[in-house]
């Protein structure tokens, strides 16, 4: 039995029995109300992977027991999670056609249909449903939140910002952080087209002055203008453990910048801080070593790793030292205390919201679609 089917096995009885119990309570007589046989038949079809028969059975039950609509909604959600989007849409469309559903019930079904279309990538259908829902009920936060996702997936940043602002006005928390990131999307597009982007950056700063992507962009602009110390100052704000994932995106240009402003006391201090921070994130260290190799050469890499070996015998440092061509004879004591030839784990970015791991950095998790979740502890084994 699959995990989802097992979950449904546990969930559907609760949904169905709730409706059945309400129905039983309304009949004020001592005679017990029997559990509908349709439920048992439908569940049997599900467990036997006869999904179409299960849908038909549960729809028949709905006509006799309108309170069981929650069961059909749960069934549609299960199909959507399994990627069976046609079945999910079919279930929700059948539900929508039931005259027994009240206005609130129909709105809930329409919201599920919008989620089906969103999962299928049919964004225009999802948008049309949600816009119509909001026209009838402008205070529906789930519909507005889903509409923001539709615009974000379609890259319509202006509409997404407007929708997020409307959510903020209705008391939905966390919108400023996302709005700042959306303005940064517009700024990056403007950079690619060589357009002026200061307005976008100012709006991002107004929404969230601590936005790490804004810091990244301002540093890149200063770097492109060869304003080394200004770029370094912007990027130095990322020298903190909960921004390792962001910092890893700019290690090469950051080291280039620090080398070009090494006459500055601040720049030298930031370089030392960067090298020290890598000690507390072993998966940042391989990326830093590669950046040092690109910017400063192999000799600097070996000197860096020798210095770290003098302060301990960390296996990752030892592996990096040997792979960089360091003198093996000089580290025999450390080698004796380490397990040789261990594979060096790749640095994976880790979504704090859903646990998704990837070698690429995303501002918006491609799995759970939450913004700015590759952060504190963002590099994971």
TrEMBL record:
SUPFAM superfamilies: TPR-like. It comes from the Bacteria. InterPro entries: Rubredoxin_2 (IPR041166), TPR-like_helical_dom_sf (IPR011990). Gene3D superfamilies: Tetratricopeptide repeat domain. Keywords: Metal-binding. Pfam families: TPR_16, Zn_ribbon_LapB. GO terms for molecular function: metal ion binding. Residues 349-375 form the LapB rubredoxin metal binding domain. This is Tetratricopeptide repeat protein.
